[in-house]
Design a protein that fits this description.
The radius of gyration is 21 Å and the shape is globular. It contains seven helices and 14 strands. By secondary structure, the protein is α/β, with parallel strands linked by helices. It comes from Roseovarius faecimaris.
């Protein structure tokens, strides 16, 4: 008779097989990986894991064949990788791949930090992501298929630069998803620079086009969180943001984010069974898997009610009024 551990592993493998069978991008057969790109495939720093590249290429091939995208480049992300390398540098887990140009670039990127609620703790640490979800308000990353959409630039406030008060604008690249990621717009999921303006006070600036009725604008200091956590969006460094926005402006392309819900469940089941994920044909970054123990996907149907009840329980507060800058 089969023991429980072997049954668990077999169930995990069956789940992966079914996921692959019905995984839309996998239906599109992409060409063999060229030799120059093969050099970038692997699990080391700056490399892309085989399964991430295979799925990213399949998604891109499918969308190119359907005419949905014509961009010569495509994007991918591996959210199982750590935020920093052993040398303390930002971990590179986002990929910009242009096969026609023989161009491959790996850059840092953030992942969703989640929340720690009394009813459920689905928060992530600074180094590795354990929790994933497609619930609105979860502040978590959802793996799967996306296509980049339009970008929107918004004013965030003023900050000090070279002794002058200057405005800070941040451009947000929207993503459209499918399957688990189909509510990307509802969740306001997209990509932007890993920087925000932490408001401190109201600055008197009546000549500003952003001034309120009393002539004030929000003022604060810039906070750079490159390679750290986000509110569920994909975040990049300044130079990577510039490159990606230029690449996708008016020219959408595909973005594949690993892991998907099926991958997470398969890895978690295999780990709980005490088996090797590599032998089971699964992938997760080794260092992060050791750090988190086992990953968890929180489906929207289960987590959304928890978040909604928490929101309703919050006491009503008066709108925040910043003090006037001195």
């Amino acid at each position: 008779m089969l023991d429980i551990s072997r049954l668990a592993v077999m169930a995990a493998l069956l789940g992966v097989a079914l996921s692959c069978l019905f995984h839309t991008p996998a239906q599109a057969q992409s060409e063999a990986i060229p030799a120059w790109l093969q050099k970038h495939v692997g699990t080391g720093d700056g490399q892309i894991a085989p399964v991430v590249l295979e799925r990213a290429r399949a998604l891109y091939a499918q969308k190119r064949a359907s005419g949905e995208v014509r961009n010569p480049c495509y994007l991918a992300k591996d959210a199982t990788r750590p935020s920093t390398t052993s040398s303390g540098q930002p971990g590179r887990r986002f990929y910009i791949i242009c096969e026609g140009r023989r161009s491959f670039r790996a850059v840092s990127s953030g992942y969703g930090n989640g929340r720690k609620l009394q009813a459920a703790n689905f928060s992530n640490g600074r180094q590795c992501a354990k929790n994933f979800s497609n619930a609105e308000g979860s502040k978590l990353t959802t793996g799967g298929s996306y296509v980049t959409a339009e970008s929107r630039t918004s004013f965030k406030g003023y900050y000090s630069k070279s002794g002058q008060s200057v405005p800070f604008y941040r451009t947000f690249l929207l993503f459209d998803g499918e399957g688990d990621t189909s509510n990307a717009r509802e969740r306001a999921i997209g990509g932007h620079r890993a920087m925000f303006l932490k408001w401190q006070c109201r600055l008197r600036k009546p000549d500003s086009p952003h001034a309120d009725a009393e002539g004030y604008v929000p003022y604060g200091r810039l906070v750079d969180y490159t390679s750290g956590r986000s509110n569920g969006c994909t975040t990049w460094s300044a130079d990577a943001t510039q490159e990606i926005l230029k690449l996708t402006e008016g020219n959408p392309t595909t973005l594949y984010i690993y892991p998907e819900s099926g991958d997470i469940s398969a890895v978690a089941n295999t780990v709980r069974a005490g088996a090797s994920i590599a032998r089971a044909g699964l992938y997760w970054n080794e260092a992060c898997l050791k750090a988190i123990g086992a990953p968890k996907f929180w489906p929207k149907r289960k987590l959304q009610p928890v978040i909604n009840r928490w929101r309703k329980s919050l006491p009503k507060r008066e709108p925040l009024v910043l003090p006037v800058c001195k």
